[in-house]
């Protein structure tokens, strides 16, 4: 039992650091399994289906566990401190890859076999590649929170947020909340810049533990206020 979390964390780190090979490998395995199920005799096809199902369920279970992956650290990059990357989107994209590959291949196989193709079938089948592309975009993009000299930057898949340090309350700038959210106490909302689709200006979220991130933000704001 003691070795379990270490092995899980190692898997998470692999998914983060080698996300492109990880996803390409998942796609290759999914295509091989789908091809095998289509060409193999019934017994072997059933075994391959069971293997594909177990792999998919394993990815779903691991992705669920990744939702609780919140290390208490930040990554130092040139000019910024950034929250760690999350393995969740990578593992979710891998699961979507398995599911989309199987469902689309099954539908195309039915059409080639002479089944009637309805407009709903076309829309339904076309939606899966779009969902797959969205999941890969979310998995491969650089999203999260970065603390820079001018303020707090957050990048989400479809929106960004910039909060200058001077906009925050120096008494208590940030508080950790549920779902690993950090609530910012903003005194000057007119200086906050928000672009794209996102929720309130007052919350940011990264994979780094929310309490740890809030503590770093509070320390930064307090230090800047003392210097001024």
Automatic annotation (TrEMBL):
Taxonomic source organism: Paractinoplanes aksuensis
Membrane-spanning segments: 20-40, 46-67, 88-105, 125-147
Keywords: Membrane, Transmembrane, Transmembrane helix
Protein name: PH domain-containing protein
């Amino acid at each position: 039992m003691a070795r379990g979390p270490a092995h899980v964390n190692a898997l998470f780190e692999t998914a983060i650091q080698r996300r492109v090979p990880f996803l390409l490998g998942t796609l290759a395995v999914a295509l091989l399994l789908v091809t095998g199920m289509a060409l193999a005799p019934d017994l072997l096809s059933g075994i391959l289906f069971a293997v594909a199902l177990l792999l998919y369920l394993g990815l779903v279970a691991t992705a669920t566990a990744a939702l609780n992956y919140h290390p208490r650290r930040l990554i130092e990059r040139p000019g910024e401190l950034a929250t760690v990357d999350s393995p969740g989107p990578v593992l979710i994209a891998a699961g979507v890859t398995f599911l989309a590959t199987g469902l689309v291949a099954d539908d195309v196989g039915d059409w080639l076999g002479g089944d009637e193709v309805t407009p709903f079938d076309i829309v339904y089948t076309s939606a899966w590649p779009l969902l797959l592309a969205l999941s890969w975009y979310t998995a491969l993009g650089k999203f999260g929170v970065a603390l820079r000299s001018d303020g707090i930057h957050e990048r989400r898949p479809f929106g960004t947020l910039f909060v200058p340090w001077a906009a925050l309350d120096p008494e208590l700038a940030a508080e950790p909340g549920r779902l690993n959210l950090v609530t910012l106490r903003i005194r000057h909302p007119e200086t906050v810049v928000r672009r794209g689709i996102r929720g309130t200006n007052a919350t940011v979220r990264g994979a780094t533990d929310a309490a740890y991130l809030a503590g770093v933000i509070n320390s930064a704001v307090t230090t800047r206020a003392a210097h001024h």
